[in-house]
Design goal:
Length: 308
């Protein structure tokens, strides 16, 4: 597995404004560099308290901050706002509730190249939108070679050596009504204690089948055959059958694989001629659901045996 990436991202101004439905008032440096999951409402900073201040946070101006600054003369207002901008390169400033931008704010933004946006949403709602956006954008991330499928509602990631049959197995699952998230390169982000997998934009819905080439699963099987993202709940490693290896036949072994600090249940499935991998994966998905509800067939069998 690749190492966790640093939680930092640079977003083009147009995309940032589009993602959050913001009006761009001043483009500034043309880029929004984000490195903090928090959003700052700078009432304390405007009052002169800068301890514990993180200048990597987005500045959100609501009605309280706006009216507080209006209570000062233009000269005092400029001094307070200038001190805020002098603390470092602020990613951007956003005014909520369609508030008019104070001239002193715009003047300081132009001096420092800080982008300025405005939204018609209430401050608390806009704050919630920003927190969700940042938590997804800056989540710890890694990329895994594999195929991610939604099988009976369970997010199953197929891994294994190149050529073992991951894509062909996924194709059979798609034919059986299950959904593809991504083939070949799975982007995994850690959202709190969950792992969410998605596809790079360039290869979304595409699949490579040796001997046939590249196909577009969505165009071939319809929008119901694909899914934008899915929680990674189970890892199934496909490997060529090895006669010298003892495979689990009861299901009592609880193997896991660590991804971004989260342990994910893992099964190793031997591949050999005549084995229907699609059916095995469907069975594994159903068994995973039963175990999550507290039922374990292996444990029941052991209890019955001991009871005798």
């Amino acid at each position: 597995m690749n190492e966790m990436q640093l939680p930092k991202a640079s977003v083009m101004l147009e995309k940032f404004a589009s993602d959050l439905n913001l009006e761009t008032l001043y483009a500034g440096r043309g880029l929004v560099t984000l490195a903090s999951l928090s959003v700052d409402r700078p009432g304390l900073r405007l009052a002169g308290f800068f301890s514990y201040y993180d200048n990597q946070r987005i500045i959100l101006i609501g009605l309280s901050e706006h009216e507080y600054m209006r209570s000062f003369s233009s000269k005092t207002r400029k001094e307070k706002i200038a001190k805020l901008f002098e603390s470092g390169d602020i990613p951007c400033v956003i005014f909520s509730r369609d508030l008019p931008v104070l001239p002193e704010f715009m003047e300081c933004a132009r001096e420092t190249g800080t982008p300025v946006f405005r939204s018609g949403r209430l401050t608390t709602l806009l704050m919630a939108d920003l927190c969700i956006y940042l938590s997804r954008l800056l989540a710890p991330e890694t990329t895994v070679h594999g195929v991610l499928m939604d099988v009976f509602g369970v997010g199953i990631m197929l891994t294994g050596a190149s050529g073992v049959g991951k894509s062909e197995t996924a194709m059979e699952l798609i034919k059986r009504g299950h959904r593809l998230v991504v083939d070949d390169s799975v982007i995994i982000k850690r959202m709190e204690n969950k792992l969410v997998g998605s596809s790079p934009d360039q290869i979304r819905y595409f699949m490579e089948l040796r001997g046939i080439g590249i196909i577009n699963v969505k165009n071939m099987y319809g929008s119901g055959s694909v899914l934008g993202e899915k929680e990674v709940e189970l890892v199934m490693e496909l490997e060529h059958w090895r006669r010298d290896k003892e495979y689990d036949r009861i299901g009592g072994e609880a193997n896991t694989e660590e991804i971004l600090g989260v342990n994910v249940p893992k099964l190793t499935i031997p591949v050999s001629p005549g084995r229907n991998l699609a059916i095995l994966i469907e069975v594994a998905a159903r068994d995973f659901r039963l175990k999550s509800m507290g039922y374990d067939a292996a444990q029941e069998l052991i209890q019955r045996t001991i009871g005798r």
